[in-house]
Amino acid sequence: REQPGQPPPCPARGNPARDDRLAHCPFARDARQSIERKRRKLGRHAGAGTILSHIAAPEVSAVQDRRLGYRIAFESMVTSYVHDRPIRGLATNISDSGLNMSTISMVAPPPGMVVPLELDLPGTSESIWASGRICYRKDDRLASGLGVRFVAMAKSQARIVRDFCIEMRRKNLGSILARIRA
Q1: What is the domain partition of the chain in residue ranges?
Q2: pLDDT of residue 117
Q3: Is the full-model pTM beyond 0.70?
Q4: Distances in Å between the alpha carbon of 121 and those of 7, 54, 107, 117, 162?
């Protein structure tokens, strides 16, 4: 509401429908002056078809890489338990902080859900049990890709996962170095 003796409120602060108030608004005046300065600088070449009309800010990916560890590519079966029902999936990579897996779309858990996981690592005799939060889900016609971050795991099993990741990374780097030297 307008108070007698006070300038009317600025449209940029809540009432954009009232254009007659633009004259009193310092924000609108600054924006107008900035646009006029750019027009003077560019002259008649500010329209479409010039190099300046095709320059745009670089596209930023909507999904940021928030992984905490180096991912090791491998394939293994994973069982997640959603509402006490076992859901089989295929793990495609793992790190000491999480894994990526694919499962059937119809039964895949939603993002944010914490699910128990049973994972068999190659070269180990026991199953790895952990709780994981679904951080990412990408649906396809048949399968869903899931990004899972480990939230709880026994220390001994976390050590097994960490040692597995370190050893696989060492082997991977060793093979790369051998190819470089050859």
Answers
A1: 11-50, 72-181
A2: 95
A3: no
A4: 71, 51, 24, 13, 11
Question: Beta partners for 80?
Answer: 87, 117
Residue position matching structure tokens 């600025």 = 10
Q: Count of residues for the chain?
A: 182
86-107 residue pLDDT tens: 999 999 999 989 999 999 888 8
Give which of 178, 164, 70 is closest to 120, Cα–Cα: 164
**CB-based contacts of 17: which residues, under 8 Å, 6+ apart?**
11
pLDDT digit string (tens) for 144-158? Answer: 899 999 999 999 999
What does the block give as tokens for 21?
């108030």
User: Could you say which architecture CATH assigns to the domain 72-181?
Assistant: Beta Barrel (2.40)
Sequence-distant contacts of 146-152: CB under 8 A, at least 24 apart: 146/89, 146/100, 146/101, 146/102, 146/103, 146/108, 146/109, 147/98, 147/100, 148/80, 148/98, 148/99, 148/100, 148/101, 148/115, 148/117, 149/68, 149/97, 149/98, 150/96, 150/97, 150/98, 150/99, 151/114
User: To the nearest whole number, what is the mean pLDDT of the chain?
Assistant: 76
